[in-house]
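Shape matters. As here.
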Amino acid sequence: MSVYHSEKQNHRVLSLHSLVGKRRLSTFQIELLRDFTASYPVLVTDDDMMSRALHRAIFEQHGLRLVETRSSDAALEICQTQPISLVISDIMKPNMDGLEMLQYLRTDPRTEHIPLIFVTATNGTHDAAFQYGADAFIRKPFHPQDLLVEVWRLLSKRIK
């Protein structure tokens, strides 16, 4: 598993073995995320029911609010009409893939500010994900704490 994130187009690669037990959110950080996502939930969009269930379990374990959808079309509609803090998406989905969805998010003034994390097992998509404007990229399988750390990294600037 690898975690990649974009900071001014510099991509860092973190291996699972270097992260386990070292990158954990504090209770205080989890409480801040819990309060923030109560008003601005995280949206997970994935056509795979088991992947959505995994994300739900991770978020519910920490009391974080999550909205789920199977399709990119529904995700776009939710982002345009509800106060979403962050999107977590798979890349490979029927009808509209995650990259195309991200392109729509980045070109719509209502949604261009919403950070997006791709969580995917799809090989060869890392570079395209960042070219389309992804804020982070996590390869499946992943450690739940790595996802939470990336969520914190992207949302902590907005949490007051």
Observations:
- Residues 27-39 form the longest helix (13 residues).
